[in-house]
């Protein structure tokens, strides 16, 4: 039995770090394992300019406590986004990607895109400069069942968009369905997907086990078991189109445990251990490095990290809570449960 595993240092290709005291609490947790992280721009107000992203990047670096941690910034796409601003952010090496939230799809997405025709000039520009578009892939039509919103998005939005912009590079973020797995596989080298640890571990029953479980609620919401199994198979396949993105999304306990609790599962405190636990359970540790450390940089056209991390087979318990000071207390995914792997110092 393998008792330790050494990987080229992984990156997190989708994370929410927030700002202020929450940033101070969570950034070091991401930086402890990951070399780089694609940082989501859904702050309030959202990160829509090169200047805002430059300033936010500095705050993240300072909060991370790790001199070599590299935040990779994203631009929040609105109906009004100026393609020239995206081009400038690219030229100045500030923006790594642009994030599309359909307006109203999730936390702080009210300023997102209401009409895809409005963003055609930005998509043209992205295609031209080779910068990826990161997509929250859910329709917001209230007539569509929440469990179907990702599959319907493929048919109504993503498929037509890829056809209209044949050279556009797209990351279908935090996929949750068999339909998304199949679609990404068929999409050729310009299409990839991130997969979260929680969607590899829970299905939708987890939200209702013995009562309502707000800390298991995120968007896209977890689906049926058959979908989880498809995600597991995809993540552990080693295929270049699937890579690590935690979608770690911290909210204070008060915001989660309320009459209208926020969407988001916080996994940064144990992310690499969770993935290792899952890959080990699937007897797929040999594919972990491709998923965690190689496929992401290859898609983004970046070099792989040069240093390594080591995980040892050792029981450790996920912390019950993370103190975020004035931003409250955050409950980690699988708080209090024991995982079979721990990141070595
Ligand atoms: O569950 C989620 N939380 N999904 C998202 O898309 C956004 C995120 C957040 O920012 O809290
Ligand atoms: Zn996210």
Describe the 3D structure.
The chain has 345 residues and is α/β, with parallel strands linked by helices. The protein has a single domain, classed as Alpha-Beta Barrel (TIM Barrel), CATH 3.20.20.140. The chain has eleven helices and 13 strands. Strand 7, helix 6 and strand 8 form a beta-alpha-beta unit. It is globular, with a radius of gyration of 19 Å. The mean pLDDT is 97. It binds (4S)-2,6-dioxohexahydropyrimidine-4-carboxylic acid (DOR) and zinc ion. The site of zinc ion has 5 residues, from loops.
SS element count, helices = 11
Structural class: alpha/beta
Helical fraction equals 25-40%
Termini separation comes to: 22 Å
The CATH class? Alpha Beta
So, CATH architecture? Alpha-Beta Barrel
String of helices and strands: EEHEHEHEHEHEHEHHEHHHEEEE
By CATH, the topology is TIM Barrel
CATH superfamily: Metal-dependent hydrolases
Please, how many domains? 1
Main sheet overview = 8 strands, parallel
Q: List cofactors, ions and other ligands.
A: (4S)-2,6-dioxohexahydropyrimidine-4-carboxylic acid, zinc ion
Range of strand content: 15-25%
Oligomer: single chain
Mean of all residue-level pLDDT scores: 97
Spatial order of the strands in the main sheet? Answer: 2-3-4-5-6-7-8-9
E-strand count: 13
């Amino acid at each position: 039995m393998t008792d330790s595993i050494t990987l080229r240092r992984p990156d997190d290709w989708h994370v929410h770090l927030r700002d202020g005291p929450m940033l101070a609490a969570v950034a070091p947790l991401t930086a402890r394992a990951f070399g780089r992280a694609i940082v989501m721009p859904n702050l309030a107000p959202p990160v829509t300019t090169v200047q805002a992203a430059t300033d936010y990047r500095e705050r993240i670096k300072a909060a991370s406590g790790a001199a070599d941690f590299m935040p990779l910034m994203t631009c929040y796409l609105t109906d009004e986004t100026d393609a020239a601003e995206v081009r400038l952010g690219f030229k100045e090496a500030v923006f790594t990607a642009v994030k599309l939230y359909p307006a109203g799809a999730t936390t702080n997405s009210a300023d997102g895109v209401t009409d895809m025709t409005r963003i055609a000039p930005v998509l043209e520009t992205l295609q031209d400069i080779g910068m990826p578009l990161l997509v929250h892939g859910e329709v917001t039509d209230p007539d569509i069942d929440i469990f179907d919103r990702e599959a319907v998005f493929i048919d109504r939005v993503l498929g037509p968009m890829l056809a209209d912009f044949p050279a556009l590079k797209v990351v279908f973020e935090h996929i949750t369905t068999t339909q998304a797995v199949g679609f990404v596989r068929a999409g050729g080298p310009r299409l990839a997907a991130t997969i979260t640890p929680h969607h590899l571990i829970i299905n939708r029953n987890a939200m209702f086990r013995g009562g309502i479980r707000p800390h298991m609620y995120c968007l896209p919401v977890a689906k049926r078991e058959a979908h989880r199994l498809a995600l597991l198979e995809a993540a552990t396949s080693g295929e270049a189109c699937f890579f690590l993105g935690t979608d770690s999304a911290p909210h204070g306990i008060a915001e989660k445990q309320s009459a209208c609790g926020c969407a988001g599962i916080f996994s940064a405190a144990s992310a690499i251990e969770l993935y290792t636990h899952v890959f080990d359970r699937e007897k797929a540790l040999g594919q972990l490095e491709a998923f965690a450390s190689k496929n992401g940089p290859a898609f983004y056209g970046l070099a792989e990290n040069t240093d390594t991390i080591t995980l040892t087979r050792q029981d450790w318990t996920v912390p019950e809570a993370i103190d975020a000071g004035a931003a409250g207390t955050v409950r980690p995914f699988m708080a209090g449960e024991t995982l079979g792997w721990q990141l070595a110092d």
